[in-house]
Design goal:
Radius of gyration: 18 Å
Oligomer: single chain
Bound molecules: magnesium ion
Number of strands: 6
Distance between the termini: 16 Å
Strand order of the largest sheet: 3-2-1-4-5-6
Largest sheet: 6 strands, parallel
């Protein structure tokens, strides 16, 4: 099971074998069904400052830091970067609108997946482009014990966010693992791109309007339809990953 996907990943990255010891896990759209609210909050904020946008584009920007998304919109609409003060004020405004929306729910299957990873001794690191404390502070309540404070990389920790590999490289450092010892779990094309660029076996999960093909094109080694399916399949996936390379057995 999964041997074709694993083989093509090993070949593409020039790895001889993988030894999964840490899972680097995205938050929005992966652990929480939060993307519809993020898109709505972005739309409300940008429409107030005269930037025209469509809701779907915010699903494509997912993974970027707030500053990076604001600069992208500013350059398109006004032909310049936003100032530090504008970024601070606009990201704050977007955060306020996000917090006014009904609370988001944990993604079905996410808790089960985290528990399984714990049972088999995998380290777990949260890797999010978000700097919003409303969700980050809920993690301990919704997924008790899953992420200790030293096992989190947030939008505040890195200068170059996803799609740069930096957040995942920092997560590997925190977990004390190499790229070949890491798996990444991501729902967004930019996050998948970052995970693959960091050299990790990157699992894409289609939890929103972005089709699986877009995650595959971004470098996902394999794509699952939802977190529940991934949770169910993870034991088999991990076994297959741990028993490579078969040709040396
Ligand atoms: Mg995400």
């Amino acid at each position: 099971m999964y041997n074709n996907e694993i083989d093509s990943f090993l070949e593409r990255h020039n790895y001889v074998a993988l030894e999964p010891r840490a899972a680097l896990i995205d938050m929005d759209g992966t652990l929480y069904d939060s993307m519809p609210n993020h898109a709505e909050a972005w739309m409300k904020m940008v429409s107030e400052i005269g930037i025209s946008a469509c809701r779907e584009e915010f699903f494509m920007y997912e993974g970027r830091t707030g500053a990076s998304t604001i600069n992208l919109l500013f350059n398109r609409e006004f032909g310049r970067d936003a100032t530090e003060a504008e970024i601070k004020e606009l990201y704050h405004r977007k955060t306020v609108y996000f917090n006014e929306l009904p609370p988001v729910e944990p993604m079905p299957g996410a808790a089960e997946l985290l528990r399984f990873l714990e049972q088999v001794g995998m380290k777990r690191v949260l890797v999010t482009g978000s700097g919003q404390s409303s969700l980050i502070s809920r993690l301990e309540h919704d997924f008790p014990g899953a992420f200790t404070e030293d096992m989190m990389v947030t939008g505040r920790d890195v200068t170059h966010g996803k799609p740069a590999p930096d957040p995942f490289l920092m997560a590997m450092k925190k977990a004390g693992v190499s790229p070949a010892q890491s798996i990444v779990i991501e729902n967004a094309p930019l996050g998948v791109e970052a995970g693959d660029a960091a050299g990790a076996f990157t699992i894409g999960v289609t939890t929103g309007p972005i089709p699986g093909a877009a995650l595959k094109n971004a470098g996902a080694a394999i794509v699952f339809d939802d977190m529940r399916t991934l949770a169910d399949q993870m034991p088999f996936m991990l076994y297959a990953l741990s028993t490579q390379p078969r040709n040396l057995n």
